[in-house]
């Protein structure tokens, strides 16, 4: 369930474009107007607005937003305004080009591969090729020096999983055993691990993880943790979490972005922008279960100004 | 260059559907009429005919062709009438379900992955999921017991290569060395081999193979052959051939289908049906260079009746 609120009667893309244009013109920018329009339109409506704005004014809406806004607010509005596959291709590219990147940066790629639909992942790969003159997989091999991390990530982003609920219990049983064997041998990038995680449908994988717990007492992520606390173990933890409970994963991303001194605005923005149209209602519930406090209050407490208003709009608040 | 001949003025899909219907009705089937219509329409025209026929007569054109025709002629016409991604998904599935399959059966999967456009491969994977309730990769892991063959094939069908001519000479040099090292160690399914063959664009790979030859004197397929004559070596040979010279590969498929006693109609049909709209003109030229005889004469000599007429129509002959 999404938290995005789209009005029952939607202005035409031309009306929206004209109002956006008005918000950009004159002395100062009307940020509230921009939030009011873009923060209440879904992906296909935003696409029509982008196209119509370009036709009407012969300028890119994204470029204009870039020149009118600033800071975290700008980043959030622009990420939201992109077509989702293009947005995710850009996020993946930025993560890969980060120096000294760790799992914290790379988890956006896992989210695209393991917490999105197979068709979305395919669209991201197509967008990546269009934008960056090479495939996503090539940039992974180029920018990730650890061979086991590289092998897992290439396997995951190359997947095109079957998208309906078909589960084979015998297969879950035998693949739980194969995963257990690889974990026992501490061979976490074994070919079988890559094949299982990178080809099976999500329903089948959840059954396999459940089967693992029943057969071997511990959950698979507990057993992986006991192999060590390096990047490979962390990455596998994120992969299993994204497949099993994407809402818990994103609740945790938001918690980690907010907790302690300072805020990790990039992660906070990413989680809210990428999930507001998908499962943010569930993430909000999960956040409450995990932290005994509301996600909305946490965001209000850690952000301010237009940035806060925009995120809260995506979270369904009536600003 | 294609050999398919599409008339300058094309009847409407409704006219074509009506004529096909007429060819089916009455005593006996008018095979010549079917060849005349379907054998002169490209993929998007055939799609319109399929859709229009279904709407007009509330029956599937494919089903009707199946009940009206028989033998190799039927197989060829039906394969040609399918949407190309659906056709290739069915060919891949049939190959995987064959008992005692060898490289001869599996090469259709290599052709889809290495001698087609990246977008076509993606469309085949989507069609596969729609038709068979699992992903192509899952059926590869299920049906191919040899782990090295499985690893290579999963890597290849999962690729989504960059589709334009961008070549990095230094990369070609360093990856030629990596391939050479893997071949020297006889470790032909090394992760690096799978990454290089499964992620690089075709132009880059051709440069890498060229570089290999310059650095190490032998061509890469010669060196692979010297590792042994098992399935893995044969498969890598087909992969390199499909990437480097798809027209030579298909000329060889046709030659092998025709040579000796009896004809391998399935391979002959596959090569002509899948390439008539792509590069059959080049394949024909290559066939002549390799065999000093014309492909058309070879097909005429080894086939007969409606089957021969249909193949020759796809080869551009005026029947």
From TrEMBL, chains A, B:
Keywords: Annexin, Calcium, Calcium/phospholipid-binding, Metal-binding, Repeat. Ca(2+) 3 binds at residue 303. Pfam families: Annexin. The keyword Cytoplasm does not apply. It comes from the Eukaryota. Ca(2+) 1 binds at residues 24, 26, 28, 68, 258, 262, 302. GO terms for biological process: response to cold; response to heat; response to salt stress; response to water deprivation. GO terms for molecular function: calcium ion binding; calcium-dependent phospholipid binding; phosphatidylserine binding. The keyword Ribosomal protein does not apply. GO terms for cellular component: cytoplasm; plasma membrane. A pair of annexin repeats may form one binding site for calcium and phospholipid. Belongs to the annexin family. This is Annexin. It comes from Liquidambar formosana (Formosan gum).
């Amino acid at each position: 369930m999404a938290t995005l609120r789209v009005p029952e009667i939607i202005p035409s893309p031309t009306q929206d474009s004209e109002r956006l244009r008005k918000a950009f013109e004159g002395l100062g920018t009307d940020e509230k107007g921009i939030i009011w329009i873009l923060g209440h339109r879904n992906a296909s409506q935003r696409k029509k607005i982008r196209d119509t704005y370009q036709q009407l004014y012969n300028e890119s809406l994204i470029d204009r937003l870039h020149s009118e806004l600033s800071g975290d607010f700008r980043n959030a509005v622009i990420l939201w305004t992109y077509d989702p596959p293009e947005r995710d291709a850009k996020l993946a590219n930025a993560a890969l080009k980060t120096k000294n990147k760790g799992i914290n940066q790379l988890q956006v790629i896992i989210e695209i591969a393991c917490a999105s639909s197979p068709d979305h992942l395919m669209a991201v790969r197509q967008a990546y090729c269009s934008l960056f003159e090479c495939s996503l997989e090539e940039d992974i091999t180029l920018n990730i020096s650890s061979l086991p991390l590289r092998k897992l990530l290439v396997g995951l982003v190359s997947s095109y999983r079957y998208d309906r609920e078909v589960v084979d219990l015998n297969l879950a049983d035998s693949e739980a055993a194969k995963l257990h064997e690889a974990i026992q041998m501490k061979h976490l990038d074994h070919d079988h691990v890559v094949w299982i995680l990178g080809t099976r449908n999500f329903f089948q994988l959840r059954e396999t993880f459940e089967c693992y717990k029943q057969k071997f007492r511990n959950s698979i992520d507990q057993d992986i943790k006991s192999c060590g606390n390096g990047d490979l173990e962390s990455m596998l933890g994120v992969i299993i979490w994204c497949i099993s409970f994407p809402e818990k994963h994103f609740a945790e991303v938001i918690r980690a972005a907010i907790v302690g001194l300072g805020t990790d605005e990039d992660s906070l923005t990413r989680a809210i922008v990428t999930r507001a149209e998908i499962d943010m209602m569930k993430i909000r519930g999960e956040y409450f279960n995990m932290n005994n406090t509301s996600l909305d209050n946490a965001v209000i407490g850690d952000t301010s100004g237009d940035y806060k208003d925009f995120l809260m709009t995506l979270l369904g608040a009536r600003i």
